[in-house]
Amino acid sequence: MFKFLTGATGALGANIIDVLRKDPSVSEIICPVRAKDEQEARARVEASLTARGVSMSDAEHRKIKSMPFNLGKADLGLSKDVLGQIRNQVTSFIHVSIFKYHC
Ligand SMILES: NC(=O)c1ccc[n+]([C@@H]2O[C@H](COP(=O)([O-])OP(=O)(O)OC[C@H]3O[C@@H](n4cnc5c(N)ncnc54)[C@H](OP(=O)(O)O)[C@@H]3O)[C@@H](O)[C@H]2O)c1
Fold it and tell me: Which of 14, 30, 36, 54 has the highest count of CB atoms within 10 angstroms of its CB?
C-alpha cells in the first residue's frame, strides 16, 4: 500500500510515520513537505524523526519518499510523474499538516 502523508515534519506526522514504517503492508510513504528540493525535503523529514527519537532500519528509511510541495499551488506544486503515481497507487491520504505562514 502507498500512503500520502502531509505534515511529516511535525509531531503528529512523525508518530504516524513511526506506525506506518512497521506495517509490512505499507510499501511507500510519500511525504510532501516545504522544501526547495528533494534533498532538503528528505533532510527535513529525517531531522524531525531523529529529533523525536524515531530510529529506523535501512529498509524502513527506503519506504519514505520525501518531496517538496506547496499547499498554495495548483496540484500542490507536484510533478506530473508524482501526480500520476498518486492517482494510480496511493490508497490513503493522511492530511495532518496545518497551514501556517511565517511573517
Ligand atoms: N500532536 C498531537 O498530539 C495532535 C493530536 C491531535 C490533533 N493534532 C492536530 O494535528 C495537526 C498537526 O499537529 P502537530 O502537533 O503535528 O503540529 P506541528 O508539530 O506544529 O506540525 C505542523 C506540520 O504542518 C506543516 N505546515 C505548517 N504550515 C504549513 C504550510 N503552509 N504548508 C505546508 N505544511 C505546513 C509543518 O511543516 P513545516 O515543518 O514546514 O513547518 C508541520 O509538518 C494540528 O492541526 C493539530 O491540532 C495534533
Answer: 30
Cα-to-centroid distance, 44 and ligand 1 (Å) = 14
Q: Which of 44, 96, 98 to mutate to test the pocket of ligand 1 (most atoms within 8 A of CB)?
A: 98
Beta strands in the chain (DSSP E): 2-6, 28-33, 64-68, 90-95
Residue nearest (by alpha carbon) to ligand 1 atom 1 = 12
Closest CA to 65 of 32, 21, 25, 17: 32
Residues 36-84 have pLDDT tens digits of 999 999 999 999 999 999 999 999 999 999 999 998 899 999 999 999 9
Domain coordinates in residue numbering, the chain: 2-95
The predicted model scores a pTM of 0.93
